Recover the amino acids of this structure.
């Protein structure tokens, strides 16, 4: 075998190894990205379920309060959350809804009859439960985001990622 043939085979083997390595790393990156998306969908599902119980809350509150602006504020915050599509808008919309609900629940604390209502007590527990589920899902999402973002920093994948101009996922901060 001539030196030229050997050199071509050697360079081809190195290039083949690099290609296989990059395909393997890229596949691992895509798997991590899928996990981030899956964890985000779990947050989204919990947020949707939280939004689904708001009409029941409004029905209960209507028995005790006549202020329509109170109900409109809850409905508007809920609708903004349901219409949000990306992580940042969902973060902001959920925080807004939580702030509205905190104000509503503070007003409700002063209403003795409402606080004795079993449905209302169950509703408050449901909101606490959904907020706990959301917090739990957020922690898993943030772990997946950290894993994905850190994996992208590893050599030689970081060079490949820079060429692709890939961006990181944002953490969900509550």
């Amino acid at each position: 075998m001539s030196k030229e043939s050997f050199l071509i085979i050697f360079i081809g083997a190195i290039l083949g190894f690099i290609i296989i390595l990059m395909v393997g790393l890229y596949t691992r990156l895509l798997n991590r990205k899928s996990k981030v998306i899956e964890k985000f969908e779990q947050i989204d599902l919990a947020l949707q379920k939280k939004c689904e119980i708001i009409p029941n809350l409004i029905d209960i509150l209507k028995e005790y309060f006549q202020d329509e602006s109170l109900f409109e504020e809850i409905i508007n915050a809920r609708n903004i959350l349901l219409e949000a599509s990306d992580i940042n808008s969902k973060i902001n919309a959920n925080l807004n809804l939580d702030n509205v609900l905190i104000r509503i629940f503070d007003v409700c604390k002063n209403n003795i009859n409402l606080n004795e209502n079993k449905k209302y007590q169950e509703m408050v527990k449901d909101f606490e439960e959904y907020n706990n589920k959301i917090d739990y899902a957020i922690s898993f999402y943030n772990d997946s985001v950290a894993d994905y973002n850190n994996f992208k920093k590893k050599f030689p994948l970081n060079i490949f990622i820079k060429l692709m101009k890939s961006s990181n996922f944002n953490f969900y901060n509550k």
Observations:
- The radius of gyration is 25 Å.
